[in-house]
Amino acid sequence: MNKKEQVIVGFRDLFNKMVWLNKFKMEDRLRGYKPSEVHCIEYIERNVDSNVTKLAESLYMTTGAISKITKKLIKKGLIESYQKPDNKKEIYFRLTEQGKVIDKIHEELHNEFQERDKAVFEQVTEEQFDSMLSFMEKYSRHLDAEIKKQGIDFNSDKFE
To answer: Quick one: which H or E segment has residue 83?
Structure first.
């Protein structure tokens, strides 16, 4: 296996291990909520004037899928929709108090996981962080270009 393959396999393995290790606590503390719902809540809390289009682009889902999720979140009392007085066409979302509780639990879990992994990150130098971040940025831009090249439209239901 060459170094490029090792990096790709390494990223996948790291991601899978993190998901597996975090899964049980996430499922226990966020029982009754799907990961896509929790990520939707997280995005809405951190981004003013969140709407279906912005959520779809950020979470790499279709607007149809996001519409279903946001309807469920409204029904569960976790988010509410609103419109701006100057734009009656667009619908935006914000968290309710109950939604903020879920977001806080999610954030606490992430902090707990970061604390667990702190020993590894304390050993990483600034130069190593800069190098890793630079690589991830380049790779992300490349993947964005590939997504664009394939003509994937998050406003269509062909991508899920």
So the answer is: strand 79-84
Total residues belonging to the chain: 160
Ranges of the chain whose pLDDT falls below 50:
159-160
Side-chain-facing half-sphere of 126: CA atoms under 13 Å: 0
* Token duo for residue 132: 């890793």
CB burial of residue 140 (10 Å; 0-12, 13-18, 19+): exposed
Neighbour tally for 78: CB within 10 Å: 25
- For 39, left (φ over 0), alpha (ψ -120 to 50), or beta? alpha
**Euclidean distance between CA atoms 93 and 75, whole angstroms:** 13
> What Cα–Cα distance (Å) separates residue 90 from each residue in 7, 10, 40, 149?
42, 42, 18, 28
Whole-model pTM over 0.85: no
Bridge partners, 80 (sequence order): 94
Asked whether 52 and 91 are in contact (CB, 8 A), the reply is yes
pLDDT of residue 155: 60
